[in-house]
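Lecture notes, unit on protein representations.

Consider one protein chain, 233 amino acids long.
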Amino acid sequence: MPSSIRLYSLEDAIVAFSAGKFVLIHDDEGRENEVDMVIGAEFVTPGHVGIMRRHAGGLICTAITHDVASKLGLMYMHDILENMSTTAPMLSKLVFSKEPYGDRSAFSISVNHRDTYTGVTDYDRALTITKIADVCRNIDSDGPERFSNSFRAPGHVPLLIASKGLLNDRIGHTELCVYLAQVSGLIHSVVVCEMLDLNTHRALTFDGALKYAKENNILILEASQLTNYAKAV
């Protein structure tokens, strides 16, 4: 990466993120080498979903902590499929393959809130996402009951489960974004969406993401800024 590229400080990003602003996060050139658009789940409106859909273009997912997922009884999709492979052996070939970047994905189930209609509109997805944030906020009281009574699956909001040890276990966008939420003092649920390029039909390059960040006054971070901060505190 050219040394002339100026990244904004993590401190600035924490302030922006805690105020409900988008932040862009680049994971690593040796991993996915993608930039995700990220925002705290508790702040999401239909307008935010529209921006992610039109300006980022990837899959709009909600990432939660491993602790929240455990209390909700959620599992990684690869574990769900592995458990099913005894009755559906053909699934075993899907389960035991890793992603090209070296580890398994963080996907769990996908959900819709019961008050949505199709679940896919900007309004419906925003409702589902903010209700997930409510579940996370109340995870030690009636959060699990809210989840089981208020959602249905499958749906249009994929859930991602962060590794138990966060950046000590895995340095994916799921862990990076959940960690940013934690240090920003937010509910530990975040919305992430990969930034894609309409011209190349591939992931948006870092330079392309930096250009977008400057034009839209959005802060951008490298994974190393978060991992170095985690080691220092």
